[in-house]
Amino acid sequence: QVQLQESGPGLVKPSQTLSLTCTVSGGSITTNYYYWGWFRQPPGKGLEWMGAIAYSGSTYYSPSLKSRTSISRDTSTNQFTLQLSSVTPEDTAVYYCARRPNMWAYDYWGQGTQVTVSS
């Protein structure tokens, strides 16, 4: 079975770059035709899709976050990463990584990791 796990610092200072890694086991991030995405949920708010990287390496971003979001991958370690630059306290949220089969909904999710932006 596919498992995903987020990791990274739980505290980031304003204006710095938030960086998280999703480690995938039980399946390759290069396997046709899956997409690997990042979501976040601020306190008291709904889940927000941030972006994704495809099996091919192509990336897709939410228009509202595209200017400061970067998703990449390391196929040798079967990991994909999220970088969010110029963070503010409004970026405080629980961040999730997840898998999406082509033509279907996201089916596997990490447990989420809390990231707080504060000085």
Q: Specify the oligomeric state.
A: single chain
Number of helices: 0
The helix content, as a percent range, equals under 10%
Rg over CA atoms, rounded to whole Å, is 14 Å
For the termini, the CA-CA separation is 39 Å
Structural class: mainly beta
Please outline the major beta sheet: 7 strands, mixed
Q: How many strand units?
A: 11
- List the helices and strands in order: EEEEEEEEEEE
Shape: globular
List unreliable stretches of 5+ residues.
Answer: none
How much is the average pLDDT? Answer: 96
Fraction in beta strands: over 45%
Q: How would you portray this structure in words?
A:
- The structure is a single chain.
- The strands form two sheets. Strands 2, 4, 5, 6, 9, 10 and 11 form a seven-stranded mixed sheet that branches. A four-stranded antiparallel sheet has the order 1-3-8-7, with no helix packed on it.
- It has 119 residues and is mostly beta strands.
- 0% of the residues lie in helices and 50% in strands.
- The chain is globular, with a radius of gyration of 14 Å.
- It has strands spanning 3-7, 11-12, 18-25, 35-41, 48-54, 59-61, 69-74, 79-84, 93-100, 108-109, 113-117.
